[in-house]
Write a structure and sequence with these properties.
CATH architecture of the largest domain: 2-Layer Sandwich
Shape: flat
Largest sheet: 4 strands, mixed
Order of helices and strands: EHEEEEHEEEHHE
Structural class: alpha/beta
Strand content: 25-35%
Number of strands: 9
Number of domains: 2
């Protein structure tokens, strides 16, 4: 949240776990959080690159954040959720059978295809040094509405849980919950603005 307000553009390399159940994954940071920042006028040069993936517990992932500075935050009027027009996703697998990602995609599509035709879930399989130190797999989903609102969900692998069940968890979250982790980012950006902004938030997350 502080990077756009630094004295100089930020080039930051982070190493460790890139996907777990405790925080936004690197995928959702790239596909959801960065577009949120663009709503406030932070766009040119804003990028998150996933160099290596790192599943828990060993980690071994690496991401690079490039963030420009912003002199003034744009006001925001964003209260209409709109209707979902497309769903995108990333099914990634590291140090496991590459077919795990395809199994997650098929399971997710078997449910989502009932509601909307415009669905594309990308299979992302990492091998060798880029796959981190531990085996794992996860599914991240992003839905975009007719008003450019973004809704996301995610589920990560657990011991003894099949890829199809992980996909089911992520899909049910997508169908029933509005994501909350980006609320602090929006509220902090509001505090840096001149003027009045409006946004429709879900129940505040703790």
């Amino acid at each position: 949240m502080l990077a756009p307000f630094a004295k100089r553009p930020v080039q930051l390399t982070l190493r460790g776990i890139t996907t777990d159940d405790n925080d936004f994954s690197a995928d959702l940071m790239r596909t959801v959080t960065l577009p949120h920042l663009q709503l406030f006028g932070i766009s040119d040069g804003l990028e998150l690159r996933i160099k290596k993936r790192g599943a828990p517990p060993g980690g071994g992932g690496e991401v690079q954040l490039l963030c420009p500075i912003v002199k003034q935050v744009k006001t925001l009027n964003f209260v209409e959720p709109g209707k979902i027009k497309r769903i995108r996703g990333i099914a990634h697998a590291v140090r496991v059978n590459p077919q795990f990602s395809n199994r997650m995609i098929e399971a997710a599509r078997s449910i989502l295809n009932r509601y909307i035709p415009d669905i594309y879930i990308y299979s992302d399989v990492y091998k060798g040094e880029e796959s981190g130190k531990s085996p794992g797999y996860a599914l991240s989903l992003l839905a975009e509405s007719t008003t450019s609102a973004l809704f996301c969900s995610e589920a990560t692998s657990k011991p003894g849980v099949a890829p199809e069940d992980i996909a089911l968890q992520a899909t049910l979250k997508m169908l029933g919950v509005v994501e909350c982790p980006n609320q602090p980012l929006e509220l902090y950006s509001f505090s840096e603005m001149f003027g009045t902004s409006l946004a429709h938030l879900f129940r505040l997350s703790p």
